[in-house]
Write a structure and sequence with these properties.
By secondary structure, the protein is mainly alpha-helical. The protein has six helices and no strands. Helix 3 runs parallel beside helix 6.
Amino acid sequence: MSKADKTRIRRGGTNVFADLGRPDAENQFAKAQLVSRMMDVMKARKLTQTGVAEVIGVTQPDVSNLIRGRFRGYSIDRLMGFLVALDQDVEIVVKGKPDSRRDARLTVTAA
């Protein structure tokens, strides 16, 4: 039997960080979604990394790191602040979880 025959494919969930078994999966996924929204704004406005850096008050290498998924050193609060600096409204909604779901969760939704 070849190595390919032994390989099992498993369908991942919606959160790659949870699929990888990260203990802070929901937090990291929320950060990734916020950074993704920042990138959407950057593309829509045709901003360079330097342009975004000037608007949000960081350096161009910091923006590069965020885009590359290196956002561990940034809090969700700070990332939301970056979006506000980019003229995006950020809305936080807290609601009860449905009884059908076992655990509460953190979700970021871009409109």
